[in-house]
Every structure is written in C-alpha cells, then in structure tokens.
Design goal:
The complex is a heterotrimer. By secondary structure, chain A is mainly α. Chain A is 75% helix and 3% strand. Chain A has a two-stranded antiparallel sheet. In chain A, helix 1 packs across helix 6, helix 5 crosses helix 6 and helix 9 crosses helix 10. Chain B is an alpha/beta fold. Chain B is globular and about 70 Å long. By secondary structure, chain C is mainly α. Chain C has a domain of 219 residues. Chain C contains 14 helices and two strands. In chain C, strands 1-2 form a two-stranded antiparallel sheet. In chain C, helix 3 packs parallel to helix 7 and helix 5 runs antiparallel to helix 9. Classes of the chains: A mainly alpha, B alpha/beta, C mainly alpha. At the A-C interface, helix 3, helix 4, helix 9 and helix 11 of A face helix 6, helix 8, helix 11 and helix 13 of C.
Chain lengths: 302, 411, 318
C-alpha cells in the first residue's frame, strides 16, 4: 500500500476525529463530574445542527457565526435541564448504582422528548446546505474546506476547554470535582453550581459540534444516537474523565476507522469501531493513555 | 380521472355522478355509510421519515379529494365518504402485524392500505393476505417477494430486476453514442443495496461492460472519501450507486470535494427529492436517478394535475418518484371499487386483469408484481436533474427531455 | 390460585380477540426479557446493555433451524446457544464493573450485529432471512407466555434464595466479599448465562411473527434499551418489579400511541422523567408507600417481609 494513499486516508480520518474529540469532551465533562451517562448527549448535537441550519437558511447567518451564538444558548439549555431534571435526582442519594440507573432513565426520557420535538418542528425531510464545500489542495491532496474548518474549530475549542480546566480557578474546581467527588464536597466546593456548570458546558460543546456537523452532513431528527455512541467510544479510548484523553482518543478513532475501513472493507467499518471499543475495555479499561491497567473498581461507579 | 375507461364504464360513472349531483349534497352524504379504510404506518420511529415524506401525505391527499367529490364511488351503492382508521406502528414490526390484525378482525375495515418499507411489507403481507384482504404494496422492493406466498399481495414499485435492466439498457445506448464502458459500482450494505448489486453485475458482464470497482459501505457511514478516492483512482466513466438518501447526499458532497466527476453518475433513493435539489443546487445537473422516475411533464394522464394538487395541499413538491405511485395505487383501488364494489376477491381479480395508467405511469401486474411496460420491454424509468428541473430521460418513449451526457463539471 | 391464573392466561387465544392476544404476546415478551435481565443485572449491579445480542441469537436460531428441526426444538436450541454466547461474553466481561460493564456489553452486542451483517453480506450474499412458519398468533403467544413464566418464576425463587442474597451482596461490595473468601465468578457467570438463554428463548418464540429478519432487526439495540428501561422503571428491589415495569410501560405506550399519535413519545419521555423524580426506586415504591401509609394507620411495628435489598439501594425503608 502506497504511503501516500495511507497518509491521505489517515488525514481524512483526522478531520472527522476532531469532531469526535469535541463531542466526547462534552460527554466526558458530564460523566466525569456527575457520574451520569447522558444517553441523550447526541440529541444536543442534533439540535445544534438544526439550529445552525435554520439560522443559515432563513437568516443567511454563517455557521461559524451561528456557532458563537449557540454557545450561550446551549449552555443555558444545559443549565436549565440540569436544574429542572437532574438536580432533583442527584440530591436523592441512594448510592452510585441507583444514581446510574436513574440518570440512565432520565436521559432516555430526554432522548424521547428531544428527538420527537425535532421531528415535530423540522419534519422528516432531509435537510442540508452547502457551505465552504469547495475543495482545496493541501500538500497535493484535495480536502473540502468545510472539513478543514471543522477540524480547526474543534481543535481550537478543545484547547480552549483544556485551558479553562487547567488555568482558571473555576476550571481547577471542576477538575477537582471530576477526580474526587467526595473529597471535593468535603472541601466545600459548591457542588450544585459546579454540576450545573459542567452539564451546561457539556451541552454547549454538543451544540457546537452540531453546528459543525450541519456543515458536513445531511440532517434528520435521528442522527443523534450515533454521535452519542461515538462519544462513548472515544471516552473509553481516552479514559473516563480525561478531556485531554478524549482529544487524543477522538483523533485516534478517526484515523483508525479510516485506515481500518480501507484495509478490511468499508462495510466492516462499524464492526471495527466496536471491536476497538471491546478490545480497549478488555485490556486497557482506563483508557489507552493512562498508566493503570487494572479494571476500575466499583467505588463511585468507576 | 387517471385511468382509461371504456364506454360502458363511462356511462355508469356518469350516471352515478349525475344521480349524486342531483341530490342535495349534504343529504347525499348523510345518507351514505362511510367506507372505512384502515392502515398502520410508521408515524414515529426511524421509519417515520420515509413514511411521512412519501406515503402518508398521499393517503390524505387522496382521501380529501375523493371526499370533496362526495366520496368513493362504490358499485351499486353510489358515493360513500372515506373514513380512515389508522394507527402508528412505531416502526416496530410486531406492532404493525398486530395492528393490521386489529384493523381487519376487530375494526372490520373495508379496505387496508400498506405500511412503509420492505421489512414491514414482508411481515404484514402474509398476515393480511391470509385474512383475505388485498394489499397493494408500494414501498417494497425485493426480489424475495415471491417467497412470501401471499396471494392477495401486489407490489407496485419496480423491483431490483426491473431497475437494473433499465439501467443497463440505458448504459448500452449511451455507450453506442459516447463509448463509455468503465463502470464503478457502489452500494449500501443493506438488503436494498445488495440485491441491486447482485442483480446488475451479471447484466453488465453480459453486455461486456468493464466493472472497474465494486464497493460497499455501512448504513451509518460518515465518510466515503476513502472509498470514493479508491474508485476515482480507477477512472470509471460510469458510476452506479445503490444508496439511501443520507449516504447519497454524502456521495455527492464528497465527490465534489474530491473533484470526482464521472461522465455518467447514477444515484438511487433520495436523489429524487426536491430537497436534494435545494441542497446542491446547480451541482445536481446531470445527476441521474434510477428509482421509478417521474415528472409532471410526463405524457401520462393526471401527472400535471397530481403535481399541482400536491403542491396546493402541502406547499412543497412531491418527490419525483414513488410519491405519484402511492397516489396512483389509491386511484387504482378507487377504480376497482367503482367497478366491482368492496368484495376483496373481486378487487383482487380486477387488479390482476387490468392495465392502469397515470399519474405515475403504466402499471400491469403479473402474478402480483408490477411488470408494467413488459409489453414494450421497458419496466422502469430513469430521471435526471437538468437546468429545467427533474426530467425523465429513459426510456425514450416516456422521456421528457434528452439526457445530458457527459455530466457537467462541479461548480 | 397461581395455577388457575396461569390457566386463564393460557386459554386466552381461545376466547380473546387476536388483537388482545397479540398485545399480550408483545407485553409478555418484554416481561420475559425484563425479568431475565433482572435475574442477573438487577441484584448484582452489573448493568447489561446487551440483551439484544442474546435475543437475536435466538431469533436467528429459529430462522435458520426451524425448517429442519421444527419450531419448538429450535427455540430450545436457540436458548442453548444464547446461554453459550453469554458464557463466553460473561467470561471476559465480568471483570469490569459499573458503567464499563454496561458499555462493554453494549459494544459486544453491536459487534455481534455488525459481524452478522458482514457475514451475511459477504458469504450468504443476502442481508435478510425469510421464514414462513404455520404458527398463528395464539401459538406464538403460548410460547412467549411459557418463557415469561419461566423467567418470572426463576426471579421469584432467586429473590428469596441464598443465591439471590449472594448476588445482592456482590452488588453491595464485591471486593469485600472476595476478601472474605467468596468465589463470586462462578455465580455471576452462571446467572448471566441463564439470563442470556432466556432472552434467546424470547427471540425464538417471537420469530414466526416476523417473516423477515435481518441483523438490524434481530439485534436492534432498541431491544436492549427497552428491556433495561422497563426493568429499572419497575424497580429491581422486588421480583415483581421488572414484570410490572414491562406491563406498565407496554400498556402506557400502546395507549398513548393510539390516543396521541405523534406526541406520544414526548409524553412518554415526560412521564419517565416525572417517575424518576418522584419514585427513584421504580414502581416498586408504590408498595413501600402503601405499606408506610398502612403502617401509619395501624401503628403496627409489624411484620416486615424480609426484603432483599440489592446492595446498591443504600437508603433503607424509612
């Protein structure tokens, strides 16, 4: 196999990998802090995509600008949902497994609601638009501009997120909470506010990813679930709770999917993704980039 | 009316219409028992997208039109208003089967209409057929229909064998004019894709086309660039895809990005939506679609009227393929009922023996499968997006425009 | 009394409409799946999101073998294969806990789906399978009823037995249990296998209704999600939680869908959220509340049934 083709395919994989990393970062924040597995995460991506689409087709607003508008919008949405829905459940206590069970049920409820709201509002037709779809030559290979832009934005946002987590006091509090929920509480960190913040941030990231998705793909109300699953795979690859890990994990997944599909046949691409997930869980459940390899214990649900 | 009538039929219909017209409208309607027509279709769930785009709107369009005229003309009974008895099968096969049993056994409807999608038809058709009801299936496309052994089941859409025959016939004529011989195939890893690909390969080989690439991809694909690059490297002159709407759009999008522009590009399901044109604009020009192509300009009875009625009611274009076929299936039932009444066996015999035409086009059943046009040897139609809109380009006797070959460059 | 109830249920096809039989058949299928799921996952805290894999194995077993060996034997064969698959899956995955186990079972189930698809496409050159069996809705109903009775019966026994207590202890603090010298692996794998076998049996029992299947239908992840949803909704602190959850969710879905059409999923979602907020341990809380209310009225310090607490429901009965 020629090196050049190899590189081209890998590069194509990286372009998507940036998106994956972004989606996973959001889910990671939510899970890392609250130990809630938000099955409805992909629905926020879907909503973000539709909002961007609507802004572009009715107002002519560039998706890149729409993206900026959507950040506060989805943050508030996430904050609101946390306050209305999750907070009550989290404060009920009952142990980590019951929490996991109930947050699963909650997010299923959200999934039903959001998916069908989108169907009701935007209808079943496939929606899409062309934006920056022209190809540009990078080192002799053609890539569509919008995919390059998506990668750029995704990387930028992930770096900003990492900066926030590591360089601001608020971010440090968030990280402390992610690493040691009980300890953080003992130290007196304002749990409710931090939970709300992280959920809101997670939703905002999902919405932003959606904006990028709308540039690249055709939209229907049911595109949410596959993104949730991708986010899940990336989180496992990169390690639960590690945003830097999900950045690397996302890029890696993109590349592996593309190369694997080339080697084994495109129709086996999805099987490959799941095989990767299973392999990582069996041999390196803490993530590919962590030192520990012992299967995670039960305390705090993982 | 979208069917050929002979003199006797005409007189009968005219007599009935006159009689009804002479009666005060409300009185006539109040007197007539409704005809209860039942169906369970996917109004929620993954299948809802296809069902709500293509099938459900036409059911209501037909009902409202018929009722505006005073109702369905039932032989010997005058006009009776149509009343729908319908449920949501939630895209769940077991639920659909159960609901159809309910419709027939408990709700005791006079007639049933089909659900959406091949899998649903496969599950529902044997049950409905066994209960003695006719089912005129539309959105079902599979060579395995005959395995069902469902006697009262009809399949309207051109099946994979008809579709592939028409593609190869078209390609053969194109080759005579332009010399294009290198074919690349791309299909989705699903029943639809596999059956079409399996059907077309021996046909292409027999006509001595050179198949330079034959690839497939999973249903939920997000990136076809590597597959398309591989195909592009083999320099095909013809690309034939058996796809679904989302991946079809992806194929177009990524072909633009790769500057991959084969002189003949044939897509499948989804390329016939007006939204396809909305999304890609000028870049759709030259793209051919192999799915039951239809255009309001077709010289078949009722095509233009159907287009306008649909637009008036829903504020958007119907799709340029199966939508008119759904509507035609309902007109066919209407015609049968006017002729023979509501007895299922008579309806079945009527459907078996007659030829129908419009607003989609000629329909003739052979052992339950639409083999329309067999008598002229052209079972399916191809369409192409052109600056003037969606045109039917094959077969020549139905063409509304000449094909544009080669496909223009991407903008 | 139980036997006469069962007898009435079994005779249903003789006197009830085919719609009711069909509806109950669908409900009992999920009763069976939810109970089978809870047999292992309910008490132990190991949430499996892989029911669809076993269900699909059972469905395919019937589709592939029924013409050769007959329908009922194919169900048993399918159950056996489901159990074997569960043994294999359990063997490798039961080292993981919490959400990792859940994600792994989901990943494995999806992997099975796509591997089956790949195999069918490449080697069978088809994607779906067709099966025409001369079994009417009554027959399928009875088969499903049988599996449901088996699953629920096993649950009843388990929740009262020492194996159940052991599983609950695993759910509470497995590490401590192991340090005390208990070998937990054997029991875990066994119950997981039983759960898998029962799920596969449901698949085989339902097969005649479908006529056509492909890997997406047989291994649909929606099956896994719905099973877990129903079991958790009902509550896993009692043996009757999952069956009740399945019946309630199934009936509510049917009713809402008929009355409210397009909106029904939105309403269902709202209902789900409300339920979780107010009854965090599931519908079984209804029993607790009734008891508490009665207790307050009668002032009995009274007889409390030895309730099996899965270790992870930390707060005791007030």
């Amino acid at each position: 196999m020629e090196v050049r083709l190899f590189l081209e395919i890998g590069a194509g994989g990286i372009l998507l990998g940036g998106l994956y990393a972004l989606i996973a970062a959001g889910l990671n924040l939510q899970y890392g802090l609250m130990r809630v597995l938000n099955v409805a995460h992909g629905e926020f991506v879907m909503l973000g995509a539709y909002v961007t689409y609507t802004l572009y087709t009715s107002l002519g607003l560039s998706p890149l600008l729409g993206l900026v508008l959507q950040l506060p919008l989805f943050f508030l949405l996430g904050w609101g949902i946390y306050g209305l829905v999750y907070r009550g459940v989290l404060e009920q206590g009952g142990g980590p497994a019951q929490l996991e069970a109930n947050s699963l049920l909650l997010s299923f409820g959200l999934l039903f609601i959001l998916e069908n709201l989108a169907l009701a509002v935007w209808g079943p037709s496939l929606r899409g638009y062309q934006y920056l779809h022209h190809p540009v030559s990078v080192l002799g290979t053609l890539f569509p501009v919008n995919r390059l832009v998506a990668l750029g934005v995704a990387l930028l946002l992930t770096v900003l997120l990492l900066g926030f987590l590591h360089r601001t006091s608020l971010g440090t509090a968030v990280r402390a909470l992610m690493q040691d929920p009980e300890g953080a509480e003992a130290v007196g960190l304002p749990l409710v506010r931090l939970h709300g913040l992280s959920f809101g941030l997670g939703c905002a990231l999902a919405g932003l990813t959606g904006a990028l998705v709308s540039m690249l793909f055709t939209l229907t109300p049911i595109i949410g679930m596959p993104y949730t699953i991708t986010a899940l795979v990336v989180i496992i690859l990169g390690g639960l709770g590690s945003v830097a890990g999900s950045l690397l994990g996302g890029l890696l997944l993109g590349v592996l999917e593309a190369l694997g599909a080339y080697l084994v046949g495109a129709d086996m691409r999805t099987a490959l993704t799941y095989a990767l997930l299973v392999a990582v869980l069996l041999f390196r459940p803490y993530g590919l980039f962590q030192a520990k390899t012992r299967p995670p214990g039960q305390a705090a649900g993982g | 009316m979208a069917h050929r009538m002979d003199r006797r039929q005409f007189l009968r219909v005219a007599a009935g219409a006159t009689a009804t017209a002479l009666l005060p409208h409300s009185w006539a309607r109040a007197q007539a028992r409704p005809v209860r027509i039942g169906f369970a279709i996917s109004e929620t769930g993954p299948y809802a997208i296809g069902a709500r785009l293509t099938q459900i709107p036409n059911y209501y369009l037909w009902r409202d039109e018929v009722n505006a005229r005073g109702g369905l003309l039932v032989r010997g009974e005058g006009r009776r208003p149509i009343e729908f008895v319908n449920y949501d099968d939630r895209s769940d096969i077991g639920t659909a089967v159960r609901l159809f049993e309910k419709l027939i056994r408990e709700d005791r409807v006079d007639l049933v209409l089909p659900p959406w999608g091949t899998a649903m038809h496969f599950a529902v058709a044997p049950v409905v057929s066994r209960l003695g009801y006719v089912l005129l299936g539309i959105t079902v496309g599979s060579l395995r229909i005959r395995e069902l052994g469902a006697e009262n089941f009809f399949a309207l859409l051109p099946q994979p064998d008809s579709v592939t025959i028409s593609i190869v016939q078209f390609l053969r004529e194109a080759r005579e004019r332009y010399g294009y011989n290198r074919v690349a195939l791309l299909h989705v890893a699903d029943l639809h894709g596999v059956e079409h690909q399996t059907a077309i390969v021996p046909l292409l080989r027999r006509e001595r086309f050179e198949i330079v690439e034959d690839r497939s991809y999973p249903l939920t694909v997000t990136d076809l660039s590597d597959v398309l690059r591989a195909i592009q490297a083999r320099r095909p002159e013809i690309l034939v895809c058996f796809n679904y709407p989302a991946d079809g759009n992806l194929i177009v999008q990524q072909s633009i990005a790769l500057r991959f522009n084969p002189p003949i590009m044939i897509l499948g399901v989804g390329a016939f939506f007006a939204e396809f044109r909305q999304q890609f604009g000028e870049n759709t020009n030259g793209i051919i679609c192999h799915q039951a192509a239809w255009s309001p300009k077709l010289r078949v009875p009722g095509a233009r009227e159907y287009y306008e009625a649909f637009r008036r009611k829903f504020g958007r274009d119907p799709d340029y393929a199966g939508s008119s076929l759904v509507y035609q299936s309902l007109k066919m039932l209407e015609q049968a009922i006017a002729e023979v009444g509501l007895d299922q066996r008579r309806i079945k015999e009527y459907l078996e023996r007659h030829e129908f035409n419009g607003p989609w086009g000629p329909v003739k059943f052979e052992r339950g499968i639409n083999r329309a046009g067999n008598y002229v040897g052209r079972p399916n139609r191809l369409g192409q997006w052109q600056p003037s809109g969606y045109e039917v380009i094959w077969p020549p006797e139905y063409a509304t425009a000449r094909p544009i070959i080669p496909k223009p460059a991407w903008k | 009394m139980v036997l006469s109830g069962l007898g009435a249920l079994a005779s249903l096809p003789l006197w009830a409409s085919s719609y009711v039989v069909g509806l109950l058949q669908a409900l009992f299928a999920y009763v069976a799946l939810a109970s089978a799921w809870a047999l292992f996952s309910g008490l132990s805290g190991y949430f499996s999101l892989g029911s669809a894999a076993f269900f699909g194995v059972g469905t395919y077993a019937t589709f592939l073998l029924a013409s050769a060996v007959g329908w009922i034997p194919s169900i048993f064969l399918g159950a056996g294969m489901g159990g074997l698959v569960a043994l294999a899956v359990g063997g490798v995955s039961l080292r993981l806990k919490g959400p990792y186990f859940a994600i792994l079972t989901f990943g494995l189930s999806e992997l099975v789906r796509y591997l089956a698809l790949g195999y069918e496409m490449r080697f069978s050159r088809t994607v779906g399978r067709v099966l025409i069996l001369p079994v009417d809705v009554g027959g399928v109903y009875l088969a499903v009823l049988a599996v449901a009775v088996a699953a629920v019966g096993l649950s009843m026994w388990l929740y009262g037995s020492r194996y159940g207590r052991l599983l609950a202890a695993i759910g509470a603090d497995e590490e401590r249990l192991e340090s005390l010298g208990f070998r937990t692996t054997g029991l875990k794998v066994l119950m997981f296998a039983v759960s898998g076998a029962l799920s596969a049996a449901v698949g085989g029992a339902l097969a005649p209704r479908w006529t056509y299947i492909d890997p997406h239908i047989a291994f649909s992840p929606l099956i896994s999600f719905q099973t877990v949803l129903m079991a958790l909704l009902g509550g896993v602190t009692r043996w009757w939680g999952p069956p009740v959850g399945a019946l309630v969710l199934g009936l509510v879905s049917e009713f809402l869908s008929i009355r409210f059409r397009y909106l029904y999923l939105i309403l269902l979602g709202l209902l789900l959220i409300a339920l979780v907020r107010f009854w965090p341990r599931g519908l079984v809380e209804a029993e607790d509340r009734v008891r508490r209310w009665r207790g307050r009225r009668l002032q009995l310090g009274g007889e409390r049934r030895a309730e099996l607490q899965p270790g992870w429901s930390a707060d005791p009965d007030p």
